[in-house]
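Kindly go through the following sequence and its backbone structure tokens. Advise at your convenience whether the structure tokens fit the sequence:

___
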Amino acid sequence: RQVVRIGGTLSFFALGEFDEGYYEDVTARVSWEVSPASVGQVANGTFTGVQLGTATISARLDGVSSNATE
């Protein structure tokens, strides 16, 4: 669990594991989602807090979705 102040940022990256057995940084290719959206926004892997609350950050690519982990 991470704490971000309103206006503060936290960086994420997305690492894809592919059928061919390799891993690739897909941070720029995924669609990011913050739930609930009112708590913050994420663009290019950088989350910005905009309101008090708890949020889940998810990344989605080609129908595969994953929540953020530490």
The CA atoms of residues 35 and 51 lie 12 Å apart. The first strand starts at residue 9 and ends at 11. The two ends are 8 Å apart (CA to CA). The chain has a mean pLDDT of 92.
